[in-house]
Amino acid sequence: MLDLGPITLRVRSDIPAVLDGLMRVYRDFPVLPPDRFADVSLELRHGTGLRRFARKQAQLFVDGEPLFFPVALPLAPVLMEWGMNWVVSLREHAYLLVHASVVEREGKAAILPALPGSGKSTLAGLLSMSGWRLLSDEFGMLEVSTGALRPFPRPFSLKGTSIAAVRAIAPQMETTETYEHPEDGPMVLVRPAGDAVARRNERAEPRWIVFPTYKAGASLAVTPISKTDAFFEVQDDTFNYFMLREAGFEALASMVDRCRCMRLTYGRTEDALSFFDRLLAEERVA
Amino acid sequence: MNQVSPESLFAAVSPRQLLWREWDDEAAIFNPASGSTHRAPSAALDVLDALADGPATIDQLIERLEQPAAEQARMREWLGMLLSQLEQAGLVERR
Amino acid sequence: MTRPLLVRVWREPALATQLGEPLWEQLVAEARRTQLLGRLAARLEDAGVLPHIPRGAQKALASERVLADHEARVIRWEATCLARVLADLSDDLILLKGAAYMAEALQVSRGRLSSDVDILVPRERLDAVEQALLAHGWAHVKLEPYDQLYYRQWTHELPPLQHTERETFVDVHHAILPITSRLQPDVARLRARARPAADGSQWKVLAPEHMVIHSAVHGFHDGELTSPLGDILDIHQLVAEFTARDAAFPSTLLEEGQRLGVQVPLGHALRAASRWLGALHPAFDPAPPSAQARLVDAAVDAMVVRSLSATGTIGTSAAGLGLYMRSHWLKMPPVLLARHLTVKLLSKRKVTGRPDLVGR
C-alpha cells in the first residue's frame, strides 16, 4: 500500500519479478499500513489459459476486475501504469485532468501538453534530471478548488532513443528491466529523480503552457500563441473537462489567464534545457 | 440554415448563465445548459449582452450596439453571419 | 442470509459511520461494480453521514457525484433537444425510465448514472419520428444487418439512434415490451394516463403506477438483467416515494398490474424489493404464489449476489447465460430464440479495452 500523493495505491502480485521491478522505481514512496483505504487497488497475476504461455504473461486486475489484455512479464510494470492512468482518468474529478507532463521550479510550473510526437515525456524526463521537479508525466492535475497543480510524481516511461538521451545527462538514472516492444522498441519506467516524491504534496502555480515539438537537427524556435488557442488546444487534450462543466471551464480559463503560452520546436537537448532556464529567469525579473 | 431576414427576431438563450473569458479579440463561451464551450470573436459577447435586454431584429441590435450610421450596411451583413453561427451553437434562437 | 455490505448500508445509512477503512474499500468496490456509487453517495448525503466517514471514501463519493450530476445534465439537455425536434410531430411524447425520473425530480434519479434517453411515441408516428431524428443530426448506430432486422421485426423500439455530435443515445419505444412477448400491456392505457412532466417541459411522463410497472417488466420480464440490484433499488425507491405521497398507491399499483396482465413480473419485482431492501407495504404479499415463482425469486437473488462479487474469479458465466436464456424465452417463440442466440454467439466479441488507449 503506497502513498502516491493524490491517491493511495494498493498493489498486489504473485509474480516476484514484477514486484522487484516495481519496487525499484516506486521505492521512494511511503508505505502505508495495509488497513488504510485504497483509492486504487491493482493486482498483477499470471495470465490464465495455456500454462506455458500463461507463465510468461501478466494480467492486470483493477478492484478485482480484469482490465486490458495480458502482456509479457517485463511489460507488467508499464501495464500497471496504463491501468492506473485509465482508472485515475475515470475517477479523480476533484481535478481537471490534462494530458500533459508538468515540471516545476521555484513554485512555478510549466505544462507540456501531450500532443502525439511531441516528445513531452522525454523533455520532462530531461528537465527532471536538470534541476526541475517532475510534477507529473501523464496527468497534469489541476485542482479545481485551488487552481493549483497537484503533483502526481510517478515513475515515467521512456522509449527508444529517449532512454539513451536521458541517461546521457543522468547516468545514475534507475529503471525497470528493459522491455523490447515489437513495434516501439525498448521501453522502461524510470524512478522519479531528486525530491519529486518527497515533495509530492507541494503544489505549484501554473505559469507556462509550452507545446513542444522535437525535430531532429532543428534549431530552437519559440512562437507565442494566443490564450484562446491555448485554451482550446488544452481543452481538447483533457480527460474530464466536459464532465466538470462550470468548474472545468473556470479551472482551465484561470490557468490560461495565468500562463504564458507558446510553441517550442527543438532539435537539441541543451537548447531546450537552457530555454526553460531562460523562462524562469524572465519570470524572476518580472 | 434559414436565411436571416430583416424581420427575423433573435433572442439570447439564458445569457445570464453563460460563463466566458475574453482574450484579445476572441472569447471562450461556456453554455451551462448544453455543457458546450464555444470559440467566438469577442464581439459576440457584445451581441449576447445586447440581446440580454430582450429579443431583437438585426436593425434593433445595431441600434442597441450604438453603431455609426456609415457602418450599418457592413454591420448588417456581419451580424447576419454571426447570429447564424451563434444560433448553430445554441446560444441564440430565432423567435 | 448475510446481506452484502452495500445492501446493509443502503438499508441502514448510520452503519456507514461505523465502518473502518478496509470495509469502506470493500463497500466502494461493491458500489462501483454495480454502478451504484453515485446513488449510494446521494443516499448517505441525505442521511447526513458523509462528514463522519473516512476521507478516502468521501473523496470517492464526491467524485462520483460529479460524474452523476454531469450525466443528469446531459440527459436534461438531450430531452430538451429531442423535444425541439419532435414537438411538431405529436403532442403525446412521453419520457421513460431515468429521463422521466429526472424530469419528475424523484428520489430514484439522485446520483443515477445513465446518458441514454428512452422515449415512448405512438406506433403510427414511429416512422415520422425516425425520419425527423435522422434529419436533425441523429444516426443509426452501425449494426450488423441481422441486428437491424431483429430490432425492427421483433422488438418494441427502433434500433438505437445516436446524435452524431453529442454522442448521446435515444431509444424510441412504441410499447413497453417486445411485440413477440406473451405479455402485451395495453400501451394505449399507459398513454392515456400519462401526465405533463413536473419540470414544465413539453414532455409527459407515465402515471406513477405505470412507472413502477414499466420498471418491473423491464427488469423482471425483459432481457435486461445486467443491473439486478439497481433494478431492485428502482422499484423500492419508486414505490416508497409514491406511497409516501399517496397512501392508496399500493392498492392502485396492484389493481393496475392485474388489469394490464403483468402481475407476475410485478410480483417478482415487489417481492425482490421487499426481500432485499425492507418491507414496503402490508398490501404486498411476501410469499411467492407458486413453486415456479419461488424458483425465479431464487434466481433473482443469485443474480444480485453474483453482481456484487468480483468477476476476477472466472467460472460464473454459465449462470448468466441461464438467466439470459430464461428472459429471452419469455418474450420470443422458440424458433426465433434459437436463431437469435446463434447469431448472437457467432458475433460475440470479448474485448474489454485497449491497454495503449492511455499511457502513451
**Uncertain spans of chain A, ≥5 residues at pLDDT below 50?**
none
Structural class of chain A: alpha+beta
Percentage of residues in helical conformation of chain A: 25-40%
Work out the helix count of chain A.
Answer: 9
Cα distance spanning the termini of chain A: 43 Å
Q: How would you sum up this structure, described in words?
A:
The complex is a heterotrimer of chains A (286), B (95) and C (360). Chain A has 286 residues and is of the alpha+beta class. Chain A has a domain of 155 residues: Phosphoenolpyruvate Carboxykinase, domain 3. Helix content of chain A is 33%, strand content 32%. Chain A is built from 9 helices and 16 strands. In chain A, strand 4 and strand 5 form a beta hairpin. The mean pLDDT of chain B is 86. The longest helix of chain B has 17 residues. Chain B is globular. Chain B has a single domain, classed as Outer Surface Protein A, domain 3 (Alpha-Beta Complex), CATH 3.90.930. By secondary structure, chain B is an alpha+beta fold. Chain C has a 7-stranded mixed beta sheet. In chain C, helix 3 crosses helix 4 and helix 9 runs antiparallel to helix 10. Chain C folds into 3 domains: 53 residues, no CATH class; 131 residues, Beta Polymerase, domain 2, CATH 3.30.460; 141 residues, no CATH class. Chains in contact: A-B, A-C, B-C. The interface between B and C is small, with 3 and 5 residues.
Give the topology:
The complex is a heterotrimer of chains A (286), B (95) and C (360).
Chain A: E1 2-3, E2 8-13, H1 16-26, E3 40-46, H2 51-54, E4 57-62, E5 65-72, H3 76-91, E6 95-105, E7 108-113, H4 120-128, E8 133-136, E9 139-143, E10 149-150, E11 156-159, H5 161-169, E12 179-181, E13 185-190, E14 205-214, E15 221-224, H6 227-236, H7 241-244, H8 246-258, E16 260-266, H9 269-285
Parallel strand pairs in A: 2-3, 7-14, 14-16
Antiparallel strand pairs in A: 1-2, 3-4, 4-5, 6-7, 6-8, 6-9, 9-10, 11-13, 12-13, 15-16
Chain B: E1 10-12, E2 19-23, E3 26-31, E4 36-41, H1 43-51, H2 58-64, H3 72-88, E5 92-94
Antiparallel strand pairs in B: 1-5, 2-3, 3-4
Chain C: H1 5-11, H2 21-33, H3 37-46, H4 55-86, E1 94-96, H5 97-103, E2 116-120, H6 126-135, E3 138-140, H7 145-154, E4 161-163, E5 169-173, H8 187-193, E6 195-196, E7 204-205, H9 208-220, H10 228-245, H11 249-260, H12 263-277, H13 291-308, H14 317-331, H15 334-346
Parallel strand pairs in C: 1-7, 2-5
Antiparallel strand pairs in C: 1-2, 3-4, 4-5, 6-7
